[in-house]
Design a protein that fits this description.
4 strands; binds zinc ion; Muramoyl-pentapeptide Carboxypeptidase, domain 2; alpha+beta; 5 helices; four-stranded antiparallel β-sheet
């Protein structure tokens, strides 16, 4: 993504200021980022989160993701956050996955070394699940 694209996206985001786009105070993460899914888009699944899941995602952002991002000091990508039942089934998620409640996120920094460092940071933050997935391709964390 080049600089112009980033500026264009920032303007678009500012113009379409809905609650889903609103960032937490001084946060790097949005509810929309934790909700979007290319699989849902492809399959026509409506992955709109219910209020309770939005509340859980706010907690996940404030207590885990943002503190981790600050310590990590570089971008952290969310591969998957909230999943409705249909989406969870489509991606082969386990039946009682915390993703269904908006309590979990699958994270990736772009390198195994970065993921290793992020994993060590997440160990020191609140969590109920912390999993090094598929040899470190991504990290699953749930609050
Ligand atoms: Zn996960």
């Amino acid at each position: 993504m080049n600089k112009h694209t980033i500026i264009a996206l920032s303007v678009a985001a500012a113009e379409a200021a809905t609650p889903l786009d609103a960032k937490e105070a001084a946060s790097h993460f949005t509810i929309r980022e934790l909700t979007r899914s290319s699989t849902a888009t492809r399959l026509g699944i409506d992955n709109t989160p219910p209020p309770v899941a939005i509340e859980n995602m706010h907690r996940l952002i404030n207590e885990v993701l943002e503190p981790a991002r600050i310590q990590f000091g570089a971008p952290i990508y969310v591969n998957s956050g909230y999943r409705c039942q249909a989406l969870n089934k489509a991606v082969g998620g386990v039946a009682r996955s915390y993703h269904l409640q908006g309590r979990a996120a699958d994270l990736n920094t772009g390198s195994t070394e970065g993921n290793r460092r992020l994993f060590e940071i997440l160990r020191t933050l609140p969590h109920r699940e912390l999993i090094w997935e598929r040899g470190g391709i991504w990290i699953h964390v749930a609050l």
